[in-house]
Amino acid sequence: xxxxxxxxxxxxxxxxxxxxxQVVAIPTETVYGLAGxxxxxxxxxxxFEAKGRPRFNPLIAHVSxxxxxxxxxxxxxxxxxxxxxxxxxxxxxxxxxxxxAPIHPLVTxxxxxxxxxxxxGFAAQLIARLGRPLAAPxxxxxxxxxxxxxxxxxxxxxxxxxxxxxxxxxEVGVESTIVKVEGETLxxxxxxxxxxxxxxxxxxxSLVRTGGAMVEAPxxxxxxxxxxxxxxLEATAVMPGxxxxxxxxxxxxxxxxxxxxxxxxxxxxxxxAAANLFAHMQALDRTGAATIAVEPIxxxxxxxxxxxxxxxxxxxxS
Length: 318
Ligand code: AMP
Ligand code: MG
Prior knowledge:
The protein is of the alpha/beta class.
């Protein structure tokens, strides 16, 4: 069962767990977050595992201030103005990711953009002490509503995580508002804790609403990272000219002729496989192989999200 500590006594324990690549449920002003070190792939994989999320959607990275944000993403003048007005607070801004940003690709689901937010209170102090951003979706299992108290987190995730930091009821009680600047357009990607009108007043322009389904909506799927190279799933043999995305200790037939082989996890560890998924797909995409053959991966635990992502990457593109 999860240990539950009040914010005044939780800092050192939370830091030690995050340093060790574990996940911790923390209070933010919006809802409780399930936080992990955004630079550590296995920590981020644990977030998906604990939530039982069937797919890898991009997570919000939480920063302690503008300096940390500027090490991760490029802030255009309008985004800068919004950050100035609403940080710390319930506004998330989607921004172009810097190529050398210390963010694990599982956080962004391989996208070249990243959702950033600076929270208030304990969460901000924790991130500042850690010196690294925290990836943190809401602290609830997939399909359940967001938790606004430590007791709600405990009832749902208590058996799966080591620590819940109790900061009482969250102030805002709904998720952050998500916006994105696209050229001259300011887009509302998700309504949330800061009203659209308030953002419009500060920005001096109206928000373009795109509906709440976000990148998970079928129409947005093209914006997800998809390799240029075709993928062939459930491959038990390697064809000439193919690269191989391997899993586990048993190789597909003819693997010695593969143009290149990368193994998601030689020991068959799902957490390691999840952490390697995007980087390995990208690396094999660059080999110039005709096709990337992908060995069968069991659908247990994180395997469901891994296979979901592979199926999307393998789907025919228009
Ligand atoms: P959660 O962390 O569970 O509150 O969800 C984060 C939300 O932010 C999801 O709706 C994501 O689809 C969205 N999101 C995160 N990163 C991006 C991004 N790079 N581009 C667009 N939407 C994003
Ligand atoms: Mg959520």
